[in-house]
Design a protein that fits this description.
Number of strands: 0
Number of domains: 2
Structural class: mainly alpha
Order of helices and strands: HHHHHHHHHHHHHHHHHHHH
Amino acid sequence: MNNFLDFMEKRFVPVAARIGGQRHLVAIRDGFVAIMPLILAGSTAVLLKNTIFQWIAPLGILIPICDQVWWGTLAIMTLLVVFSTAYSLAKSYNVNSLAAGLIAVGSYFATLPQAHGDAGWGYIHWGYLQATGLFTGLIVALIATEIFVKLIKRDLTIKMPEEVPPAVGRAFAAVIPGMITIFTFGIVFLIIDKLGGVSLYDVIYEGIQKPLQGFSQGVGSAMVMAMLINLFWFFGLHGANILDPIMNALYLPALTDNAAAIEAGLAAPNVITRVFFDTYVHLGGSGATIGLIIAIFIAAKKRKEYREVAKLSTPSGIFQINEPMMFGLPIVLNPILFIPFIITPGILTLIGYIGTATGFAPPTYVAIPWTTPPVVGAFLATGATSASWRAAVLASINLVISVLIYLPFIKLADRQSRKTKITNQ
């Protein structure tokens, strides 16, 4: 085990640290974080429309409000992410971030067809703006911002006199870089159109995004992603933040697809969504550490320091915050806890997948705050319907299993503590 840890510290940790600090991944992560209030507002609207406003007839008059909230949030998610990601990336370069965000939005529109189906000119289908467009939107946001930043840094700008207000000066400085950036994507649209394609979105969706989403729905790939998050965490790196851009790009569209299908009265097409992991896997935080806390209360007799940390960590653990356990126990670089901490999310992902795929629990389709307590989150993420109790049961089963996985290792740690005390005497 020591040789393994030495190898990982030498080879894995430096690479992982570089990934975690990579400018573009950080920009994507921050871009999604910035629109979280809108995602939660849209998901709450979907939840209210399909539960309380359906159950209580007089409240049905409020359903149009939910429709409009959804229309202003989840239905235009890609547009929001394009702006926020470009803004964050430009800010990291210390370049006019507001202009970069606006130019990225304009660039994305420049790649879209100006008509859809039999509709006349000037009609953009909302499908290009919802979560299915995230992959294309992120690519455009990153490339557009890089072009804009490079042109700015090469001083290809219009300089205004010093007496001009700063806001006006920054706007004029962005004119030439902005024009070149948007024209670039207009040229991309023309090339794709002349080659017989529809748009950049369709090329990327059919050639890259769709195959990746199909791969992401495999239980094996989901298990790997869940365990990889914990592998980063074990070495003190925030695994959830590092992999958040990938998780959002792959699994947020699956969530919105489920919501749209259920809204239309159809069966949800996806088993694994972005919320699936918070619902069934990250119980108490990465590694299902609420199960570790319970295991400590059950089995740690001699390790008083474990019990004290567990007591202090319980309130935050209930709300899915596990940094006190990560760094206080610690779990980070703890060889005894390495095995359960890595395998637990993989096993819970498998059980959650089986429980959902077999129809025991309804699919997740509501974006809930990641701080929602375990079991309660499962009930809400599946729509708080008459069948959602089964999702709560499935989450409870996973919680019990996480405790059972951690128990023998806590007993081992307790036994080692006892032996150490005897040796010291």
